[in-house]
Design goal:
Blueprint (H helix, E strand, L loop, with lengths): L5 E2 L5 E2 L1 H19 L9 H14 L4 H8 L4 H8 L4 H15 L11 H5 L1
Antiparallel strand pairs: 1-2
């Protein structure tokens, strides 16, 4: 896959965090000018929180997230940077309900046979 290199108005290379930020801000200006859609600016720090949360969601260990984020204390990663996702909470609740009440049918699902009756 070819790499794309962006240049500034003066012809210099745009690279690194500053370059990425400049490109994202410019894209936001274009979107704001063309549409009424407003994209909230996301800080790099917010992306750290998202990264930790997504790593937890896909099943990576907390130690892996800790190493990636560069934390010396696992508690910081767990209590500050990882967040519960609504879908995960719903799945966990359903799993708990299956363990506690295995004989109770799930009335949320309608089968073809029950829909006919």
């Amino acid at each position: 896959m070819p790499r794309v290199r962006l240049t500034s108005a003066t012809g210099g290379w745009i690279s690194g965090v500053n370059g990425t930020r400049r490109v994202l801000y410019r894209l936001q200006e274009i979107v704001d000018a063309e549409f009424t859609l407003v994209i909230p600016r996301v800080s790099w720090h917010s992306l750290r929180h998202s990264n930790a949360t997504i790593l937890g969601e896909v099943g990576e260990s907390l130690k892996t997230a800790q190493a990636i984020l560069g934390h010396s204390d696992l508690e910081t990663t767990l209590n500050t940077y990882t967040h519960a996702i609504r879908e995960s909470r719903r799945r966990a609740t359903e799993k708990g309900a299956e363990v506690l009440c295995p004989v109770v049918p799930n009335f949320g699902e309608v089968t073809a046979k029950s829909a006919v009756n």
